[in-house]
């Protein structure tokens, strides 16, 4: 059993367990953990930059430079995003490259939209259509 640790500020205790069910579904606690990690301006900026940098990611120094965030501050924010399962890291030579965990992002979005609009496709369709361009923009950028 993992002991919870204060990860998101004074008075907030979040458990360390990060399991997405075999079916691919997240539970409420996991969604809260992901959303809480993003509920801070610098962390949201970091995550959005990482999502935009997929699939290559960014070395820590490049993230700090682009966001004008001190390295030690960036490290703390990356730790919180990592514990929430939103960011992965890999050592490449002398650098650590950070990437957005797109599967975790997808699971969080699906959790939020799971019961969308009571199944009314005429209401849900425009919302889902608005999510589609992110794939087509990247595809056209490589043409």
TrEMBL record:
Transcription regulation recorded as keyword: yes
HTH arsR-type domain location: 23-120
Gene Ontology molecular function: DNA binding; DNA-binding transcription factor activity
Keywords: DNA-binding, Transcription, Transcription regulation
Pfam families: HTH_20
UniProt superkingdom: Bacteria
UniProt xrefs under PROSITE patterns: HTH_ARSR_2
NCBIfam families assigned to the protein according to its UniProt record, in alphabetical order: HTH_metalloreg (NF033788)
Protein name: Transcriptional regulator
